[in-house]
Structure formats: C-alpha cells, structure tokens
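Schema walk-through. Below, the input block comes first and the output block second. Nothing else is stored per chain. Lengths vary across the set, and this one has 183 residues.
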Amino acid sequence: MPIIGIQASANQQARSDTGAMVPLGLVQVGSAGTATITFSSIPSTYKHLQIRGIARTATNVSLGLRFNSDTGANYSRHFINGNGTAPGAGGNADYAFSWAGSAAQNALTYGANIIDILDYTNTNKYKTVKVISGGDNNGSGYMQIMSGNWRNTNAVTSIDIFQAEGNTITEYSSFALYGIKGS
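--- output ---
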C-alpha cells in the first residue's frame, strides 16, 4: 500500500509543477530613466516566457519588443484598443507593441503590461507574442490586446523592451521575466 501512495504523491507533484511560473529576472528603472531594458542569457528550460511590467514613458507612446537584437522587418502584429470613447483596431509589420503611461498623466500613473512569448525555444516555428496592456489616461482609461509574431525560427535568448519612438522609459518602471514550465 505505501508504494501506491508514494507513486500517487510523485504523480501529483509532477502535475502541480506544469504551468508553474519561475522568476528569471527583474529590472527596475532608476532615476535617469533608460532607452532599453534587456533580459539576456535566457535559459532554454521552460515552455513559455511571460513578462509582467508597469511602465511610464516620457511621452504618450508605445513600448516595443525585440528578440535576439533582431532589428529586421520580421515582426508583425494585430491589435484591438480603446480609450472609453473611440475603439480601434489595426495591424502592421513592425516590432510587437505594448502600451505604457505617459508624462501627461498623473505622475503616479503607470501602464500595466502582461506579455506572453509562446514556445520561445521551438526551432520549428515562428514565435508568437500575446500582450494585454492598459492604463489610466488622466481620467479616461486605455487598453490594448495584441497578438504578433517574430518570423524567425531561432530560440529566443534575449529580449529588449524599448520606447518605440526613441524616448525614455522613466524612473520606477519595472519589468519581471518569468519562465513557465510545461509538460
């Protein structure tokens, strides 16, 4: 009887680890701000990656993602967004976007972002990105749901988060990278 109990316990432990999120890195922006946040030397031992962040930029503009320092034209995205009065949708071929708060907002307001990078080590397919983001826009909200891809089969080993129009990501912005275990 004890052998069955031990086996059942081991099986339960294996199941509970599937989907677990493991912290891999945290970046908090200092008083000088920064143009780019980089997560490098990403281990290849997880199924997916997730970035959770709060961000504020010097102007009301977007953040971009870049994988493995690739600045080529192999990114595309589709999005739905809204600000409480004017919904929008679109798509284009550029880097994958999320949204951040702006300097025009209250100084304590930051955009929130959850970014999923699926199957980041699979060398048989392009990498898919999903983003849910939003924030307060000085009394009116803003949200965006985006999906995109990096048309490259290389494993993702580094991720740059940058202010898409060349401005600064401001002090107290913070991004955490997690590895998500798979079966």
